[in-house]
Amino acid sequence: MDVLFESPACRLDEIPDGGAKGLVVPDPDGGALRVIVLRRGDRVLAYRNRCPHRGTPLDLRPDDFLDRDGRYIVCATHGAMFRPEDGYCIAGPCAGDALTPIAVRVENGVVLVDPFEPEL
Ligand code: FES
Fold first, then answer.
1. Closest-lying ligand 1 atom to the alpha carbon of residue 92
2. 80 CA distance to ligand 1 middle (Å)
3. pLDDT at res. 1
4. Is 84 exposed, middle or buried (0-12, 13-18, 19+ CB in 10 A)?
5. Distance from C-alpha of 9 to C-alpha of 27, rounded to nearest angstrom
6. Confidence class of residue 117 from pLDDT cuts 50, 70 and 90?
7. Measuring CA to CA, how many Å separate 89 from each of 2, 10, 17, 70, 79?
8. Atom 4 in ligand 1: which residue has the minimum CA distance?
9. Is 27 left (phi over 0), alpha (psi -120 to 50) or beta?
10. Which one-letter DSSP state was computed for residue 66?
């Protein structure tokens, strides 16, 4: 798979292990794409920061994406809950829908987001 574009987003150590961080990276249309990056040890996952229910960002307060136990991603607007491992919505008004995955990897401690290549 050819990577067309990668945006250095942040350093891995800026994301708490087990936590999440919101980023804004250039999108394929020349605009800005809101992204959530989740860290699990040295592993990262990323999704568009866009709730499938109404299309709003999931966080009302910056980087506040997870429930109290850190088990699920929660939409602050109406409380939809998403599994971190695949973005699937397990509860809320968009149950059965899912967050849009974004290709992401870590290289030399830097988180690289590739908004041109959605992770399928
Ligand atoms: S906008 Fe996210 S649950 Fe309604």
1. 3
2. 6
3. 45
4. buried
5. 12
6. low
7. 30, 27, 22, 15, 11
8. 78
9. beta
10. B
Residue 93's Cβ-count burial label (10 Å; 0-12, 13-18, 19+) is: middle
- The residue to which tokens 């109406």 are assigned: 78
Q: pLDDT per residue over 17-28, tens digit each? A: 999 999 998 887
Q: Are strands 89-91 and 110-114 parallel, antiparallel or unpaired?
A: unpaired
Q: CA-based angle 60:61:64, to the nearest 5?
A: 100
Task: Please give the number of the atom of ligand 1 that sits closest to the Cα of 52.
Answer: 2
**Torsion angle in degrees (nearest 10) through CA of 38, 33, 104, 78:** 30
Give the residues across from 66 on adjacent strands. 73
Reported as half-sphere exposure (CB side, CA atoms, 13 A), residue 39 has a value of 21
